[in-house]
Design brief:
By secondary structure, this protein is α+β, with helices and mostly antiparallel strands. It is about 40% helix and about 30% strand. Strands 1, 2, 8, 9, 10, 11, 17 and 18 form an eight-stranded mixed β-sheet that branches. Strands 6-5-13-14-15-12-16-19 form an eight-stranded mixed β-sheet. α11 packs antiparallel against α13. It is globular, with a radius of gyration of 22 Å. The chain binds flavin-adenine dinucleotide and 3,4-dihydroxybenzoic acid. 3,4-dihydroxybenzoic acid (DHB) binds next to β14.
Length: about 400
Amino acid sequence: MCILCRMGAHSMKTQVAIIGGGPSGLLLSQLLHVRGIDSVVLERKTKDYVLGRIRAGVLERGMLDLMREAGVADRMEKEGHAHDGTLISYGDEMFRVDFTEHTGHAVMVYGQTEVTRDLYEAREAAGGAIEFNVEDVVINDADSDAPFVSYTVVGQARRIDCDFVAGCDGFHGVSRNTIPDDVRREYEKVYPFGWLGILSETPPVNPELIYANSDRGFALCSMRNENLSRYYIQCSLSDSPNDWSDTAFWNELKRRIPTDQADKLVTGPSIEKSIAPLRSFVTEPMRWGRLFLCGDAAHIVPPTGAKGLNTAASDVHYLYNGLRDFYENNSTAGIDSYSQKALARVWKAERFSWWFSSLLHRYPDQTTFDHRIQVAELEFLRASKAAQKAMAENYVGLPY
Ligand code: FAD
Ligand code: DHB
């Protein structure tokens, strides 16, 4: 039986109705809970489905601090791996950018699946209200002082009255389109390729990530732990995961990374294989009345540089602090500046992800001139401490 039914209600009231039980929605809900602010999370899928999605793997310092503030960092501190730098290769050349040397900060390798699992456990332990399998979610009267969310669960109509609605329902959710067309502006760039990713129970080829530019296209060697590797190769948008046998994947990956790395790559059966298209996308504004968009509901980055989840976390930071300001200090200053503050940081993450993608991929219309410019930029990054510092500053995450 659902939580609301157990409470004997098909209609209820909360302070913040959160649409979407992905990392943004759960993190916001948990942070608000720590401050005594009540929320209800509505998720379209089941918990197992959400936890089955293999996505981001690298957490910025700001996200680590938010996990600590939310009281959900114990397992991350124990099982996550701090990375002080990353490797970038082109052909057989490879160099390292040292994050700690240039910024004083590292990043943490800890999967989105684990972040989400920790957040679900914390919400459940605290008796937090999460409704799964919700359908037909509609955000009503967001431009009034009395918004409410209507939805159905197994065909039964439900309603939540609230002070605010947080739209944390990802790129395909309903929140963004609740903002009227004449208010909403959208900016988009679609890339002419995708990433084919696999997860395999094999030791990572290298203790640090390798971002590889090769004549055959981009590749990334990443990991989750000592015996769980995550690898990606740039692929055609018309490919399907079934087109790629494990052997074909490993052979292609080996051809895209430096020979000495390929020689020590341990291969094995894939336990997950999927293709993600690459897109840059921003919606403005991120607030309409009492509705606030957070994370993928408002913006998408190409995955190069691991900014998707981390940018969702910075939105949560601004919104959480704005809501605290409202409930604790009776001030609307934080929520009034939410959209402008969040977007200022979003656009910088968009720029970095676009730049890092441009540096490393093969584009179908790329000329020999374009290719030489890419190599020149890689060699500049290799040689210039200033360029490395700029890259490291963005990779570990710009300050909130
Ligand atoms: P989501 O994770 O999308 O969560 C939104 C939630 O809302 C979902 O659980 C969804 O089921 C739910 N929902 C949707 N519609 C409704 C509705 N109408 N009602 C109720 N609930 C709803 N980032 C990286 O940094 N590195 C990566 O390698 C990487 N790989 C990715 C691969 C894929 C295939 C995708 C799609 C994204 C990837 N990302 C990656 C991006 C990163 O995973 C996202 O930025 C992050 O998940 C954003 O979190 P979110 O909570 O805002 O959105
Ligand atoms: C991972 C994904 C990324 O997009 C990235 O830049 C780094 C790591 C990963 O899934 O491990």
